[in-house]
Task: inverse folding
């Protein structure tokens, strides 16, 4: 199986374009992380052929149409965001992404996200989060309820609990986006302000 580099992977291409020579080394990952990443790949690989195809990924926005009655315009915006996100994640529009290359592609994407953060560039995780947020925040009040956040997780076909510590789960009420596009949590207790929606997208995509 050919390896990944700047000739066949968008994230490597981005890193090299800005002078970052980071290179994947499987020895840097704990076996449990590798196992978790492969398990997530198998969730994405709808036809179980060992390859993640863009058509399989673009199934998610259509799920949002079914779950929250998203408009055609909203679905197209989500599809564009999902396409850009997973193109950079290593899913080739024609050849897809094989299971064998998934772990490396996942990790180089994470390094590219860190580089974008260092350079003050837009995070692709935030871009994808915002596309879904705009659909979930149907009343435009700048917040998303926990139930609506769970709807997004359902759209991603993730049979897992919302990644919120049990000590906070009962008090968390709303997810908010501030003017600078960051995220915060409203709750009955003070001191709880994680970037939960972007964090949820990161969890769903194993970044």
Result:
């Amino acid at each position: 199986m050919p390896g990944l580099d700047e000739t066949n992977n968008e994230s490597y291409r981005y890193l090299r374009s800005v002078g970052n020579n980071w290179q994947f080394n499987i020895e840097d990952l704990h076996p449990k992380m590798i196992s978790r990443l492969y398990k997530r790949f198998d969730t994405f690989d709808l036809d179980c052929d060992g390859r993640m195809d863009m058509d399989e990924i673009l199934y998610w926005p259509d799920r949002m149409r079914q779950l929250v009655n998203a408009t055609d315009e909203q679905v197209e915006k989500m599809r564009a965001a999902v396409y850009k996100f997973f193109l950079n994640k290593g899913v080739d529009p024609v050849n897809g992404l094989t299971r064998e290359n998934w772990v490396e592609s996942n990790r180089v994407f994470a390094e590219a996200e860190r580089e974008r953060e260092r350079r003050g560039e837009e995070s692709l995780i935030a871009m994808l989060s915002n596309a879904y947020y705009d659909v979930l925040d149907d009343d435009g009040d700048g917040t998303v309820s926990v139930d609506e956040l769970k709807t997004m997780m359902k759209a991603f076909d993730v049979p897992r609990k919302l990644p919120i510590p049990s000590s906070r789960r009962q008090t968390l009420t709303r997810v908010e986006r501030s003017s600078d596009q960051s995220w915060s949590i409203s709750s009955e207790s003070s001191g709880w302000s994680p970037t939960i929606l972007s964090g949820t997208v990161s969890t769903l995509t194993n970044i």
Observations:
- The longest helix spans residues 99-118.
